């Protein structure tokens, strides 16, 4: 009996299975904790890779293809879960546009709007569709996967990524304020970096070093955080912005490296 037994979750952008990123890790952990997990991604085959991984390990899961940036499809995704399971208790908005984009002076209108559509409008559409069902049952957990870029800046995603993820924090706090009286909590998780299975395979030993020094999180690490936020015992936590992982999240970087550099220049920082 896991902490989420009897609950139903929908995780967007959760495809890829072993090669997937944070969404796949979140889906895996929620299933291990006993939830029935609907795995969404743009393509059913990609979603099914995570579903197959979950079911092979004894979990309950099913695939749902759909584009969260389309309000009609967002409504259909939620309706499909309700039709199949009779309820929706947990929504994790993980689907996001990623990748390198040019600097602002070279960014096209299409690129800008695509970031806002997926990273900000998508969570809005999905939450808007899910909340009425959660209100009826007086239980709901919405978890928005943002990024450390929301508090700083993004070297890869650029202005579109940073702005959309910052907007997601505003959406998180507004939803939390409006629906807490219905026992619906809304929180944001801000990874500093997630080492997807694909990246880990490509990077080899360098990837293992990033994991060992806690510079990047593994997908299931994010899942563990989400599993607690999704649980009944986290009912007092709402409107929170949770930054992970450790070294990159401090704003200071690796203090051991800072201390070594300080010694080289003769700065007294104590021991």
From TrEMBL:
Signal peptide: none annotated. The keyword Oxidoreductase applies. Transmembrane segments: none annotated. It comes from the Bacteria. One of its GO terms (molecular function) is oxidoreductase activity, acting on the CH-OH group of donors, NAD or NADP as acceptor. It holds the Pfam family adh_short_C2. InterPro entries: NAD(P)-bd_dom_sf (IPR036291), Sc_DH/Rdtase_CS (IPR020904), SDR_fam (IPR002347). Keywords: Oxidoreductase. Belongs to the short-chain dehydrogenases/reductases (SDR) family. PANTHER family: 3-OXOACYL-[ACYL-CARRIER-PROTEIN] REDUCTASE (PTHR42760:SF133), SHORT-CHAIN DEHYDROGENASES/REDUCTASES FAMILY MEMBER (PTHR42760). This is Oxidoreductase, short-chain dehydrogenase/reductase family. It comes from Thermomicrobium roseum (strain ATCC 27502 / DSM 5159 / P-2). The lineage of its organism: Bacteria, Pseudomonadati, Thermomicrobiota, Thermomicrobia, Thermomicrobiales.
């Amino acid at each position: 009996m896991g902490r989420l037994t009897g609950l139903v979750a929908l995780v967007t952008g959760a495809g890829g299975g072993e090669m997937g990123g944070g969404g796949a890790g979140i889906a895996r952990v929620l299933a291990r904790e006993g939830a029935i997990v609907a795995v969404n991604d743009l393509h059913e085959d990609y979603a099914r890779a995570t579903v197959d991984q979950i079911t092979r390990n004894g979990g309950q899961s099913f695939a749902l293809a759909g584009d969260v940036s389309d309000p009609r499809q967002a409504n259909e995704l939620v309706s499909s879960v309700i039709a199949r399971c009779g309820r929706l208790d947990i929504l994790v908005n993980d689907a996001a546009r990623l990748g390198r984009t040019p600097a602002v002076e070279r960014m096209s209108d299409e690129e800008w709007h695509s970031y806002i559509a997926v990273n900000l409008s998508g969570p809005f559409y999905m939450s808007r569709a899910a909340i009425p069902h959660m209100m009826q049952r007086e239980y709901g957990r919405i978890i928005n996967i943002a990024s450390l870029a929301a508090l700083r800046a993004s070297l890869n995603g650029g202005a579109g990524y940073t702005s959309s993820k910052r907007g997601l924090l505003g959406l998180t706090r507004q939803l939390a304020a409006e629906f807490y009286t219905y026992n619906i909590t809304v929180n944001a998780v801000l990874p500093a970096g997630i080492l997807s299975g694909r990246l880990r395979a490509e990077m080899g030993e360098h990837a293992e070093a990033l994991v060992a020094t806690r510079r990047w999180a593994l997908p299931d690490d994010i899942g563990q955080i989400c599993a607690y936020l999704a649980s009944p015992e986290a009912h007092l936590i709402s409107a929170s912005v949770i930054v992970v992982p450790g070294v990159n999240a401090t704003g200071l970087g690796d203090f051991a490296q800072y201390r070594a550099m300080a010694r080289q220049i003769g700065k007294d920082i104590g021991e």
